[in-house]
């Protein structure tokens, strides 16, 4: 219920479900669903629903104080598990593409410096990783930057910008441009509920192109292999650290209409990180930029 409690606090602070959703990166429907789950769990309504604003009722005011205290205690417990200098565990969330390109080298350097610290890698799409960092379930996460503003207690460190390309089977005529390929060939869609997939969806709408969808998936390597096997064309980002496209694939730049996704590192700012967490964050940034100081 920690996530629902955080959403409840956001509604109480912002005054409406819509404003709370904008603050924490959820749709109004998702906020409403979380509040409903919380109310069902507690067995009572928390808001006066007679007006347009979300006004706390008497039970809601009492719950607000309790929720603030519970979340404060949870933060203390989370920080207290890792005394400075003590062996422990770092929990790092990561989108799939970073796991295969950046993390092996980062972890090699990290464990040379911190052999006693276990690193748990949690895979996921960016939306879920964002919520897990916010809930304190992850120490940090490598993810795609969302289109909405991040809340004040989350820190975003840019890592790389990955431009999108159109991948087409190499067997198709070489004189076909990306517009013609998208309009005439089956389309392998980057899963539209993901942050990266939403960028593709927006690009297609702005370009006025209606595609013939064949597959929808959230794994970039699999998308490229499907293109190589002739299943269709796909709009995918050129992943940082990726050496080359697979055999059997022709990659076309999008020219002036090109777009990109921003990859970054997300952390909470509500408490000082354990030194091992700070060092892992430093190595992730260094792997992308070559910088020696991440601030």
Can you give keywords for this protein?
single chain, 295 residues, alpha/beta, nine-stranded mixed β-sheet, 11 helices, 44% helix
Secondary structure topology:
Blueprint (H helix, E strand, L loop, with lengths): L1 H13 L2 H8 L3 H15 L4 E2 L6 E2 L1 H23 L8 E6 L1 H6 L1 H11 L4 E6 L2 H9 L5 E5 L9 E16 L8 H7 L1 E5 L4 H13 L4 E6 L2 H9 L4 E5 L11 E4 L7 E9 L6 H15 L6
Parallel strand pairs: 3-4, 3-5, 7-8, 7-9
Antiparallel strand pairs: 1-2, 5-11, 6-9, 6-10, 6-11
Helix pairs in contact: 1-2, 1-3, 1-4, 2-3, 6-11
Question: Could you describe the 3D structure shown?
Answer:
The chain has 295 residues and is α/β, with parallel strands linked by helices. The chain has eleven helices and eleven strands. Strands 3, 4, 5, 6, 7, 8, 9, 10 and 11 form a nine-stranded mixed sheet that branches. Strand 1 (47-48) and strand 2 form a beta hairpin. Helix 1 (2-14) crosses helix 3 and helix 1 packs across helix 4. 31% of the residues are buried.
What's the count of strands? 11
Biggest β-sheet: count, sense, barrel?
9 strands, mixed
Alpha carbon gyration radius: 22 Å
- State the helical fraction: 40-55%
Number of helices: 11
State the distance separating the first and last CA atoms: 34 Å
SS-based class: alpha/beta
Order of helices and strands: HHHEEHEHHEHEEHEHEHEEEH
Uncertain runs are 80-87, 291-295
> Average pLDDT across residues?
87
Backbone shape: flat
β-sheet strand percentage? 15-25%
């Amino acid at each position: 219920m920690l996530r629902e409690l955080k959403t409840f606090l956001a509604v109480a602070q912002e005054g409406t479900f819509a404003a709370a959703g904008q603050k924490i990166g959820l749709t109004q429907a998702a906020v409403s669903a979380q509040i409903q789950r919380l109310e069902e769990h507690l067995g009572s309504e928390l808001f006066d629903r007679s007006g347009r604003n979300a006004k706390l009722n008497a039970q809601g005011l009492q719950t607000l104080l309790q929720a603030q205290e519970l979340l404060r205690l949870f933060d203390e417990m989370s920080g207290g598990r890792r005394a400075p200098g003590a062996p422990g565990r770092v929990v790092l969330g990561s989108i799939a593409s970073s796991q295969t390109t950046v993390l092996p080298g980062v972890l090699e350097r990290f464990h040379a410096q911190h052999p006693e610290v276990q690193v748990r890698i949690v895979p996921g799409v960016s939306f879920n990783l964002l919520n897990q960092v916010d809930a304190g379930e992850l120490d940090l996460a490598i993810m795609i930057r969302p289109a909405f503003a991040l809340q004040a207690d989350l820190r975003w460190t840019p890592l790389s910008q990955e431009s999108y390309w159109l991948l087409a089977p190499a067997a198709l005529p070489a004189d076909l441009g990306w517009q013609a390929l998208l309009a005439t060939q089956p389309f392998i869609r980057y899963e539209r509920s993901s942050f990266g997939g939403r960028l593709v969806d927006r690009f297609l709408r702005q370009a006025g192109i209606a595609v013939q969808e064949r597959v929808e998936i959230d794994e970039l390597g699999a998308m490229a292999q499907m293109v190589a096997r002739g299943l269709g064309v796909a709009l995918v980002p050129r992943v940082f650290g990726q050496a080359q496209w697979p055999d059997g694939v022709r990659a076309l730049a999008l020219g002036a209409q090109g777009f990109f996704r921003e990859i970054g590192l997300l952390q909470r700012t509500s408490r000082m990180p354990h030194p091992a967490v700070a060092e892992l964050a430093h190595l992730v940034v260094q792997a992308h930029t070559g910088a020696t100081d991440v601030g």
